[in-house]
Amino acid sequence: MVRLLIVDDEPLHRQGLLKLMGKLRPEYTLFEAVNGEEAVRIVNEEPIDVILTDIRMPIMDGFQFLEAIDPVSKNMKVIFITAYRDFEYAKKAIAFRPFEYILKPIDVEILQQCIERVERQIQQERTQSSLQVKMSRLLSESQRVYVEHQLNEDYASGLTQEEWEYLDECFPFSQPGVVACAALADPGRLPELSERDDLYAGLYEVWPDKGQLLPFTLGQDRPHACAVLIRAPETHAAGETPSGIIEHLTQWLKVLEAKYECKLSVGVSAVCRSLREHWTSAYRQARENCERAFFTGYGQVHAGLQEMCSAPAVRCEDTSELADALREGDEQAVRQFMESFGRRMCCEHYTPSSVKQAYDALMECQLRETLAPYGGDTLGAELERWREISREARTWSRLHDAAEQFLLELLRRTADKHDAIMRQIMQDCLEYVKQHYHEDLNLQEIADKYHFHPSYFSQQFHRVTGRKLSDYIMEVRLEQSKKLLAQTQEKIYKIAETVGYGHDKYFIRLFKKRFGMTPNQYRSMHYKMRGGASAGSQTTEQGRSR
Predict the structure, then answer these.
(1) CB 52, CB 82: distance < 8 Å
(2) Looking at residue 278, which CATH number applies to its domain?
(3) What is the model's pTM?
(4) Position 408 pLDDT exceeds 50
């Protein structure tokens, strides 16, 4: 059972923390205070285990509150939560030996990790008899947390000279060094590890000089990766990576693989003359090298120095060959295209993110082309399904195989459905032509109506109906003209206009080609069959109509 006190004068922040902690730890007993004075009263009345406190508060601020209660003697864990980044505040916080120092707005994941560390610390302390051990661990953790926080600040916006002077007391940042980054091959295994500190523990097992190391994690890497600053021999040339460091990192990988049954990739930078001045660029180089596992596989230390670049962009017009293969249901052509595409993408000097973007673009183009007839819901669901697959693919080979299988599965699943939908669309098109035959119909307009490329729509219309779209339009128009010729006395040019032809001569030519007689001849024949007007009158009418 853990009893936790939240101290914050801002109602929204305080209530938000209460609600959040209620969800994260429903078994906790929670207390709240609006300022330090009220918090002192609660601490004096209740056996509090953990305090989450703001620093700036009215009546009594966070520091005055802690001075009044002496959390060390009461064996309480303190987590400062504040929006103030002032260095002096940070130093003062460390003096109170907080368990953590968290900035607003609160990152839920960071808070969760902090609470987990607090819980482990409480459990450890409850089983330990030595107060000296407890205080030593709290102080060490506080210092490491603060150093890690400052590194995050420096990476984001830089630190002042005074802040760097304090950090130099914790680690020799002014000396040469390298940065190594480690990333789990399968992030899903992380919950099986008690915390990333377990990864660091493996590192300390193989390193002869533990004072040579400074483990840390940047916010962007949580929770799948960690990093470490490694002091390098001052005699080692800049721009290279000491072989001894690579050997120790390789041993670290072996220890972790044996201990946790997981694979990692480690990227290491070249030596920089001053970690203080160049650790951020060294970190980026180490991160890039770590990402080379995307192509070469995990369980290795990557120390390449060649800068990574972006993979070529993929445009829909560049993948028309694949689109044709999917439409035609040609599995072999799909496999051949993907083999060629994979050869272009499998390059360890490409950034994994750009390669994933290329595969994502390829898949989106094909999905939009293939699933357009099925409507937005189907397209959206398939796009999200692919994006989830892409996010989970930790290596190029997995990504490529997943993409090929996704396309083949799509081809097989949609073949029958596609045919049924196309038949329905073409039936609708036939009805549309019957209703709009008198308008200026053309392939482009009708294809646009159904969101297809004209050539593809023409191909599908002929496949489903057995005739050309232009022939069908002409057939409908001419059949309608027969009705008008038989049922009205409209002049030929008027009938031509009515059924969608601007020129009566063109209409007469088409009519004669289709029925073997002119419109007037058809009208005369129709009237004779019905006992209508004389041939002479028809001849006269023909003259007037022309």
Answers:
(1) no
(2) 3.30.70.270
(3) 0.49
(4) yes
